[in-house]
Amino acid sequence: MRPFDPQLLRAAPAARRPVVALAVVGVLQGVATIATAFALTAVVLAVVKGMPVGRPGAWLAGLFALRAALSWTSERVSAWAGSRVSAALREQLLAAWLRADADRRPDPSHAVALAAQGTSSVEPYVAKYLPALVTAAVVPPLAIATLAVVDWPSALIVVLTVPLLPVFAALIGASTRDATQRRWQALSALSGHFLDVMRGLPTLVGYGRATRQVETISSVSQRHRRTTMETLRLAFLSSAALELLATISVAMVAVTVGIRLSHGSVALGTGLVAILLAPEAYWPIRRVGAEFHAAADGAEALADIQGHLATGTGSEVAAAGAGRDDAARRLAASLARPATVVASGLTYTYPGTTVPVLDGVSLTAGPGLTVLTGPSGTGKTTLLEVLAGIRVPQAGTLSTPAAHLVSQRPFLTADTVRSNLALGTAAGQDACWQALRDVGLDGVVAAMPQGLDTRIGDDGFGLSAGQRARLVLARATLSEATVVLLDEPTAHLDPESAGIAHEAIRTLAARRCVVAVSHRPELVAAADAHVHLEQGRTTHSDSRQDREAQQ
Ligand SMILES: Nc1ncnc2c1ncn2[C@@H]1O[C@H](COP(=O)(O)OP(=O)(O)OP(=O)(O)O)[C@@H](O)[C@H]1O
Question: Which GO terms of the molecular function aspect are on file (predicted)?
């Protein structure tokens, strides 16, 4: 971890003002502390000499009040700055991942760890460590300069001992960096494993292997606990070491002042100011050492976040020829474009593999229904994802307006039926009911306790697989996109429900360009065009007219 990474201020512009404000408050606190040393000395001298303490006492009280106010301000600004920066980074991360194609998105467990704990761990870095760093750069030189004017021998001792603190801190910091990296990896592994287990819990329970996971989660948690304790041990050790060093250094100043006082070679006032000022040269550096450990996680996470923000900017994505753009702008532009998909020579190879899944696929789909068939694993889903702009082909050209993709594993949030239906559109009550009627789900939703306002669980929990499939189909009918891509939309439905859904798909295709992957012969028969894929290539395509002519 570098002491300060200017990338932060570039990555999170929201951090600039709070960091500057915290730095100013830190410097004012330092100046007030130095002034307090003089005021306190004046009070002590007044008492010793039997003079009135009213004036110096008032100064001292005023300075204490100022320091309390500055301390309160610093805490408030810190809390505000931390939450502002972490929220801004979280927003930027999500926006970058949404812009990026599927191959550049991180693994979900890593994404969860980074967007949740990662961005939160940047808070102490911004709110505590950076202001401490600025204070450490300003206050010690100020204290030493004042000390040099007041009592140069004390200043000399401080100048000779103060560099030991950053040297020690840097030595300890090197091992902290490795420990923090290990801790961060352990945390990612823990959240990833936990997510996998939660996802696969029904299957694990079904096969009677759920209890085995307790052991695995326990060992992953233990690894995280060990790495956390290792980091904490280092933090306590380094604080103790810096504390000891600073105390010995201050003691050296105090002892020499004491000896000179007893010899009468220094005035009481000067000696007192020197003793009170000496700690001010050390504490800001000690504070940096203490905050460094709390901030180390944040610095590690910040480096990771910056990597994701840099790769998610999309410059290469646009250059790859798929013409993907910001989703909202694309949707707006798409409404003005004809509902036609034209793909030519699309070639796509998954990262880490060598054999292309799509090998020069060409396809033209206009308004109406185009059904895509082909054996399992031949690349149909991949093709839909390329058409939707989620994956970027390595070769070929694609021209399409913004598309609404209904995947095989539909995405449903833990929210009301209404918000799951209207996701991203301004569909009202009537439109929602009409969409539900189109897919034959109106009776089911009407029978729910709160109708459209009934909450469904995460991932559609509480609905059958067929109901989920129809709900996302209803959502597609509400979408404003002129191109709708459906991946096996009726795979989970009984013949009756499939019939209703096919009718809804045909209605949808009357107004838009619908490309559906399906193995249902009745949907293929009803299609305006049929494209067959095999081993990543289009082996056959025909239109309804071709089929009618053949018959
Ligand atoms: N993330 C991935 N990384 C590497 N290979 C993948 C990935 N996803 C899919 N594949 C491979 O790409 C090939 C095509 O997969 P795809 O899901 O597109 O096939 P499909 O035709 O839709 O199959 P199905 O009809 O069974 O849904 C498969 O051989 C699959 O193993």
Answer: ABC-type transporter activity; ATP binding; ATP hydrolysis activity
Nearest alpha carbon, ligand 1 atom 6 = 350
- 404 CA to centre of ligand 1 in angstroms: 20
CB-facing half-sphere around the CA of 522: CA atoms within 13 A: 12
For ligand 1, atom 14, which residue shows the shortest CA distance?
379
Is 347 within a domain?
Answer: yes
> Which of 103, 348, 350 most suits a substitution to test ligand 1, by most atoms within 8 Å of the C-beta?
350
Q: Within 10 Å of residue 227's Cβ, how many Cβ atoms?
A: 19
H/E element, 398:
strand 395-399
Q: Ligand 1 centroid to 376 CA: how many Å?
A: 8
Nearest CA among 114, 101, 110, 93 for reference residue 315: 101
| Number of other CB atoms surrounding residue 194 within 10 Å | 16
Nearest C-alpha to atom 23 of ligand 1 is from which residue?
377
> CA of 376: how far to CAs of 117, 200, 536, 537, in Å?
39, 23, 11, 13
Q: Are 466 and 435 in contact (CB under 8 A)?
A: no
| Ligand 1 atom 7: residue of nearest CA | 350
- Is 437 within the bounds of a domain? yes
CATH code for the domain of 452: 3.40.50.300
Instruction: Pick the residue whose CA is nearest to atom 10 on ligand 1.
Output: 350
Pocket mutation for ligand 1, best pick of 104, 353, 382, 537 (most atoms within 8 Å of C-beta): 382
What averages of pLDDT result for each successive group of 10 residues across the chain (551 residues)? 63 74 84 90 89 87 94 87 86 85 77 84 82 82 89 89 80 70 74 77 79 79 79 77 86 90 86 88 82 74 79 40 47 60 91 89 90 91 91 89 86 85 80 88 87 78 80 88 90 82 87 90 88 83 72 67
On whether residue 2 sits in a domain, the answer given is no
Whether residues 478 and 331 fall in one domain: yes
For residue 354, report the distance from its CA to the centre of ligand 1, in Å.
Answer: 14
Per-residue CA distances from 123 to 1, 2, 19, 89, 299 (Å): 16, 17, 12, 10, 10
Shortest-distance Cα residue to atom 9 of ligand 1: 382
**For tokens 């009934």, what's the residue?**
454
Do 476 and 375 lie in one domain? The reply is yes
Q: Which long-range contacts (CB under 8 A, 24 or more apart) does 446-450 make?
A: 448/417, 450/416
Among 409, 383, 387, 346, which Cα is nearest to 483's? 387
From 279, 313, 347, the end of a domain falls on: 313
Domain identity same for 484 and 438: yes
For residue 430, how far is its CA from the centre of ligand 1 (angstroms)? 39
Distance from C-alpha of 4 to C-alpha of 289, rounded to nearest angstrom? 13
- Give me ligand 1 centre to Cα 429, in Å: 38
CA gap 489, 501 in Å, rounded? 8
- Which residue of 355, 373, 378, 387 sits with most ligand 1 atoms within 8 Å of its CB, as the best mutation to test the pocket? 378
The count of domains in the chain is: 2
Among 273, 289, 313, the domain boundary falls at: 313
Range of the domain at 136: 7-313
Residues 239 and 371 in one domain: no
Domain holding 286: CATH number?
1.20.1560.10
